[in-house]
Amino acid sequence: MNRLTMPFLAIAATLCVALVACKREPSTERAADAAAPAGAATAPGEPTADEARAIAKDAYIWGYPVVENYKTLYQQALEQGGANYRAPFNRIGSLNNVATPKDTAIVTPNSDTPYSFLWMDLRAEPLVLSIPAMGTQRYFSVQLIDLYTYNFDYINQSVTDGKAGTFLIAGPDWKGETPKGIDKVFRSETPFAYALFRTQLISPKDLDNVKRLQAQYKVQPLSAFAGTPAPPALPPVQFPPYDAQKANDLGFFSYLAFLLPYAPMNDSEAALRDRLAKIGVVPGKPFDESALSPAMRQALLDGIGDANKELANFVATQINTDKVHSADLFGSRAQLKGNALYRFAGAKQGIYGNSASEADYQLYFVDAKEQPLDASKHDYALRFPKDGLPPTNAFWSVTMYDGKSKLLVDNPLNRYLINSPMLGSLKRDADGGITLYMQNASPGKDKEANWLPAPNGPFYVVLRNYSPKPEVVDRTWKRPALEPKR
Fold first, then answer.
1. pLDDT tens figures, 89-140
2. Which CATH number fits domain 366-484: 3.40.605.10, 2.10.10.90, 3.20.20.80, 2.60.120.1600?
């Protein structure tokens, strides 16, 4: 889940409601710890409560994307029988349909492109991905994401030019030679990585073509591709079950400590790693929550709350004021320049967002009067003038999301978006423009072709532009506002 303005939330407090830590007021809960105030003496080398709180805040901002990434990894690759299970490591699992409200593994999912999923274990040897000939008219991409959630590269039309291709994905420790038949080598910073495939569904009648292409995505170990002996099998990793309640409390630090050995340290983060150790977050060692004093426990919880308050302030003062755009929140390590707050914001609101070069995301959280979108209070209209449709090299879409769950909205039409391939079925305005109606109840049969059903409450809308034209990226093209109609 990037390019133009991204007003995440008009009311910053909304960012905190899902997290236990945000519900605690440090001034009241610390009262129970009068025997161990923030400035109390500590054992040699142990941080004070204030120091621990500051470390916990930074740890949560920096580490939240890693733990949220693990949530998806666990559900899609490890939790067999779970609703979001797709395939084990090093095997591709595909959904032969676009996302629906039943898909809950990823918030703000796109419903334009049926997904294929590949969780990669690159510890023993690289993997080889084979992509079929896609032609030049169909959008597709394979987004390559490391454990940090950096988009370390893409396989797409600009790489393949619509032709079949074979690509090697290597982990950080691979030092072998590239065999013949490999078109390009991609390197992940982490030994576990994610390949997220998007294959455009041009129309409902196109689904069989998408299924055929998905069936031709292929993955195999390098040894199988090259016809060489496989390396020795590595001991299996004992992955802890993912529990959302635990991850949103002090258990967050336990997950982070488990994941750190699989997130090789970048030199720029050495000081942060040292600080994490001071609060017991040590790579590969259990985080002992039971050993925390009441004061230290509260300090870590307060640190989580502080992180979310900083995010809320960032949204209100930087994103909602257009000082920071969604384009800034996703990309490679080099593109993000180590900005942990940006990664945090991206993972919170739409993990796995595309890099700027791949897709543009413009989010609507407020209407033309700067009021939060709420279909229990208003009906809305989004009007594109005749010559004002989103400029794109591929296609654009407008998708509706529930403001509470951040998922697609169940509705009687089973319509979750309106996109450019649907233009022929939309009703034009008298001047040739197009008006989309976003409301809970039908706008009437004469307008229903242009109706994007909203929940009976808060919602937000994402305007996606795949392979956007320069005027979108450089902000020359201005999106229309959502107008309240009642």
1. 999 999 888 889 998 877 888 889 999 999 999 999 999 999 999 999 999 9
2. 2.60.120.1600
- For the chain, the domains span 80-226, 366-484
Q: Of 476, 406, 478, 485, give the one whose Cα is nearest residue 451.
A: 485
- Decide: 54 and 276 in contact? Cβ < 8 Å: no
**pLDDT tens across 292-310, in order?**
999 999 999 999 999 999 9
Direct distance between the N- and C-terminal alpha carbons of the chain, in angstroms, rounded to an integer: 31
Joined together, the tokens standing for residue 254 give: 């336990």
Decide if 135 contacts 172 (C-beta within 8 A): no
- Structurally, at CATH architecture level, domain 80-226 sits in Sandwich (2.60)
Residue 13: its pLDDT value, please? 34
Confidence of residue 15 (pLDDT cuts 50, 70, 90): very low
pLDDT of 116 reads 96
